[in-house]
Specification:
The protein is an alpha/beta fold. It folds into three domains: about 170 residues, Sandwich (Immunoglobulin-like), CATH 2.60.40.10; about 150 residues, Rossmann fold (3-Layer(aba) Sandwich), CATH 3.40.50; about 45 residues, no CATH class. Helix content is about 25%, strand content about 30%. A five-stranded antiparallel sheet has the order 1-10-9-5-6. Helix 5 packs antiparallel against helix 6 and helix 5 packs parallel to helix 8. The longest helix has 20 residues. The chain is elongated and about 125 Å long. The relative contact order is 0.11.
C-alpha cells in the first residue's frame, strides 16, 4: 500500500518525492544487508543490499512529476448541501511541444480527497477530467491546493507536484423534505388563519357595537355615539400572523459534533418547510456569536446562510432561552432542536415549546415531544407527529 504524505495546505512545497511503505522497507533492508555483509565479509549480501538501494534510488528518480500542461479547476457549484459531493472538472491544456506524462490528480477539501487520472496529452492539445469530493461538515471550506502524483512502475516511490491553487466552497445544512402540516406546524397554520378579537388600536377594524362595562374606553367612537345616543365601541380583530420560531440548542454538552450536524439539518428542514408552507418563521440559536435573527425569514437561502457558520458553544458562550425571549412569547410557537442530552435550558412556560431531541440514543422524556437518531429519521416521523 502506498504511503501518501499529507498535502501541504500552503502550497509552498511545489514538488517532492516520497517513498511508499514498500520503498521504505526495501531501502532499510538494503542498508541492513550492506552493513551485515561488510561486517561479516559476505560479499553477496553487500551486492544484494547495494542493488536494493539502487532500485529505490531509480524508483525515486522515475517517480518525478515532469508535467508541463496547464490545469484549470472548475467547481460545478460553489454551494452544496452537507453530504452532497463536490463536482469538479479540470481542463488540462498542453501548450508545449512534447506529449505530457500520465499522472494522478488529487484534490482535497476539509480532509476529504478526490482523485482522477490525467491522461497523456499531445502537443497543442487539451482534455477534460473530473472528480468528486464528499462533504461531511457545514461551513466555508478551502478547496485545494490540488497536486499531481506519479508512482514508479514497482510502487516504491511517489512523486508530487503541488499547484498552490486554492478556492472556497460553502457547505450548507441538508434540507430534508417534510410532508404535511403536522406537529407544531399544524398548530401554527391553524392559528395563522384565526381572526381573534383584540383591543390593539393598530389591529384591523371590523365593526361597531354597544359599549359594555369593562371595555377599553379608548375604543369608543364618539361621533357615532353622539348620533346613536348610546356609547358605541369600535371592535377590532388581530390580523397579524403568529411567529413560528425554530431554536437550535448549540450547547456543546448536549450533543457530539456528528449529532450536532444532524440537529442543524433538522432545524433547517423545519424552517424551510415553514417558508414553503407560507408561515412566517424566525430562526434563533443559543450561540452568543450567531444568535440568529428576530425578524421573520421569507427566503430559504437566508435560513441556510444563517445556519451554515453556527457551531457548538462553550458554556460561557451559550444563551439561555430566557435571554432569547426576554420580550415574551406573544404570537410565538416554538420548536427547539436539541441533542440527546438536551435541552441546556428551558422556559418557565414549558408548554410553549415543543422540544425535539436529535442524535444517537436520543430518548423521550417529560417535556420532550420527539426523539430521533438523525435528520432523515425526523423527516420520516414528521408526518405522524401530532
Amino acid at each position: 500500500m502506498a504511503r501518501r504524505p499529507p498535502p501541504d495546505p500552503t502550497g509552498e512545497r511545489a514538488q517532492g518525492r516520497f517513498l511508499t511503505w514498500s520503498g521504505l522497507g526495501l531501502a532499510v533492508t538494503g542498508v541492513v544487508l550492506v552493513v551485515l555483509g561488510w561486517w561479516w565479509h559476505y560479499e553477496e549480501l553487500v551486492v544484494v543490499g547495494v542493488g536494493a538501494v539502487v532500485a529505490v534510488a531509480v524508483a525515486t528518480w522515475s517517480a518525478r512529476v515532469a508535467h508541463s500542461a496547464r490545469i484549470v479547476r472548475r467547481v460545478g457549484t460553489p454551494r452544496v448541501e452537507r453530504g452532497e459531493s463536490l463536482q469538479i472538472r479540470y481542463r488540462v491544456s498542453n501548450q508545449g511541444h512534447r506529449r505530457t506524462t500520465r499522472a494522478t490528480l488529487v484534490d482535497v477539501c476539509d480532509g476529504e480527497h478526490g482523485e482522477t487520472e490525467v491522461p497523456s496529452v499531445g502537443p497543442k492539445d487539451r482534455t477534460d477530467v473530473s472528480t468528486t469530493i464528499p462533504t461531511r461538515r457545514r461551513g466555508v471550506h478551502t478547496i485545494g491546493p490540488w497536486y499531481l502524483e506519479r508512482h514508479d512502475a514497482f510502487g516504491l516511490a511517489i512523486g508530487r507536484r503541488s499547484s498552490g491553487e486554492t478556492g472556497t466552497i460553502i457547505v450548507h445544512p441538508k434540507v430534508h423534505p417534510l410532508s404535511g402540516p403536522y406537529g407544531a406546524m399544524h398548530i401554527v397554520e391553524q392559528e395563522a388563519v384565526i381572526r381573534r378579537v383584540a383591543s390593539d388600536p393598530l389591529s384591523g377594524f371590523v365593526s361597531l357595537r354597544e359599549y359594555v362595562q369593562g371595555d377599553d374606553p379608548r375604543l369608543i367612537h364618539w361621533p357615532t355615539s353622539a348620533r346613536m345616543g348610546t356609547l358605541m365601541l369600535r371592535e377590532h380583530v388581530e390580523l397579524r400572523r403568529p411567529e413560528f420560531t425554530v431554536v437550535l440548542d448549540t450547547a456543546a454538552s448536549v450533543a457530539t459534533p456528528d449529532d450536532f450536524e444532524e440537529m442543524v439539518d433538522v432545524a433547517a428542514s423545519v424552517a424551510v418547510h415553514a417558508i414553503r408552507s407560507g408561515v412566517d418563521v424566525t430562526v434563533r440559536t443559543t450561540s452568543r456569536e450567531h444568535p440568529g435573527t428576530r425578524r421573520s425569514i421569507g427566503v430559504e437561502q437566508t435560513v441556510l446562510d444563517l445556519l451554515t457558520p453556527v457551531g457548538q458553544s462553550d458554556p460561557d458562550d451559550v444563551l439561555r432561552l430566557a435571554e432569547l425571549f426576554r420580550d415574551g412569547l406573544d404570537h410565538t410557537a416554538i420548536v427547539m432542536v436539541t441533542g440527546p442530552d438536551g435541552p441546556a435550558s428551558v422556559l418557565p412556560r414549558g408548554d410553549s415549546v415543543s422540544v425535539v431531541r436529535v442524535g444517537a440514543d436520543a430518548a423521550l422524556a417529560p417535556g420532550i415531544a420527539l426523539a430521533v437518531d438523525d435528520a432523515e429519521t425526523f423527516a420520516r416521523k414528521w408526518r405522524p407527529w401530532r
